[in-house]
Design goal:
Elements lengths: L1 H8 L2 H8 L5 H7 L6 H10 L1 H16 L4 H17 L7 H29 L2 H30 L3 H4 L7 H6 L9 H9 L10 H27 L5 H20 L1 H8 L1 H21 L3 H29 L5 H23 L3 H26 L1 H6 L1
Length: 381
């Protein structure tokens, strides 16, 4: 039980890094309004996280293949807590941005090691269920932390950053005993030092990149799209997005039983298919009711994609390479949204939010068809 709690706790910080600042950015902008370029710098409180996590994920993957994982979790958890709470005591927005970079790096490291450990220490029969719970934990943390941050922010924007004491739970749970690298990894390291790019499954990296776009980009445009079809109040938009997240969390919790019954290939087809149908329906929805129904459908796909990808990595990647490859895959998912936004933003005046959502639906449909038609996937199934 303590090991399961340790794994689940590794996913919370990665959710909090994005959600905690959302309700308080306006207050921070007002507080630092006298600083040159303050409006841009406050946005970088969240903007710096992508590059930081893109560094932290592969770094943690490399380290986790060589050193005690519980020890690494403790170190990164302490770094996350210290850098996360630091803005409570800081008066410089530039220094705050630097601490946010450290927080993003540490959060990605915790998430990566958390997704690496089930493949190393749990039997195959338990891994799928754990991967689903890891994904669900992140989603639940997002839902809970948004209103909590807003409530604390009513007492001042600094107070919300106290939420980042939560990574200390990881450090505490990591204390009782050490888990050394698996014997296969330790033996591999003693035989040879692998280059960072050796043995990378580029197909899985490309799949992770696509999943990063499919999961993240709809959220960027969703609030604007919902506002355009009748959700005039922020509370309504927030409630709709919360419903979708709850559906995704439920789908993630059910992932273990789902993949046991259907297999990874069918789950990929179903997940991408649900995303395609749901997002396309959302893009053409003429009222809020239709938008909610289609968003719920997309939410099912959102809940299955990440655990299915991690399950595949756990099954396909050799023990000696697992930590390193999980880190690279996590990095691909982290940087993907930046490229997706850079591609869609110039087109937005012409296609609008409906076109952006339809484009992501098309990408999802392409991957659903690829998994359905792939002879290799069919043979593996």
């Amino acid at each position: 039980m303590s090991f399961t709690l340790l794994l689940l706790s590794t996913q919370i910080t990665a959710a909090l890094v994005y959600t905690v600042p959302i309700p308080i950015l306006a207050g921070m902008t007002e507080a630092f309004g006298s600083d040159p370029g303050s409006a841009f710098k406050v946005k970088m409180v969240s903007g710096i996280l992508g590059p930081a996590m893109a560094v932290g994920a592969p770094l943690a993957g490399w380290l986790s293949s060589r050193f005690d994982r519980r020890g690494l979790l403790g170190i990164f958890a302490l770094l996350a807590a210290a850098s996360g709470v630091a803005p409570v005591f800081l008066d410089s927005i530039d220094v705050i941005i630097a601490t946010r970079f450290l927080l993003g790096l540490a959060a990605a490291a915790l998430m990566t090691i958390g997704y690496t450990m089930p493949g190393d220490y749990l039997p195959e029969t338990r891994r799928a269920g754990i991967f689903g719970l890891l994904s669900a934990t992140s989603m639940v943390a997002s839902v809970v932390s948004l209103p909590l941050s807003g409530w604390l922010g009513d007492s001042g924007w600094r107070v919300s950053f106290l939420i980042y004491i939560t990574p200390l739970a990881v450090a505490i749970l990591a204390l009782p005993q050490r888990l050394p690298p698996p014997s296969a990894v330790a033996g591999e390291v003693t035989k040879r030092v692998r280059r960072w790019y050796a043995g990378i499954p580029w197909g899985m990296v490309a799949l992770a990149f696509a999943i990063g776009i499919v999961l993240s980009i709809p959220g960027v445009y969703l609030s604007f799209h919902l506002a355009g079809i009748g959700a005039s109040q922020s509370s309504t938009i927030g409630l709709v997005m919360t419903f979708a997240t709850v559906v995704s969390a439920i789908a993630s919790i059910a992932y273990g039983a789902t993949v046991s019954a259907l297999g990874q290939r069918v789950v990929f087809v179903a997940a991408f298919g649900a995303m395609a149908v749901g997002l396309f329906g959302l893009s053409v929805a003429g009222n809020l009711i239709v938008a909610i129904v289609t968003l719920m459908l997309a939410g099912v796909g959102m809940g299955w994609l990440v655990p299915n990808l991690m399950g595949r990595l756990s099954d396909k990647v050799p023990d000696a390479d697992r930590g390193r490859i999980v880190g690279i895959v996590q990095s691909a998912m982290t940087i993907a949204p930046m490229f997706g936004i850079a591609l869609l933003e110039p087109l937005l005046p012409a296609i609008g939010t409906s076109g952006a959502l339809a484009a992501i639906a098309l990408l999802s449909a392409v991957f659903a068809v690829l998994f359905y038609l792939s002879p290799k996937e069919a043979a593996a199934q």
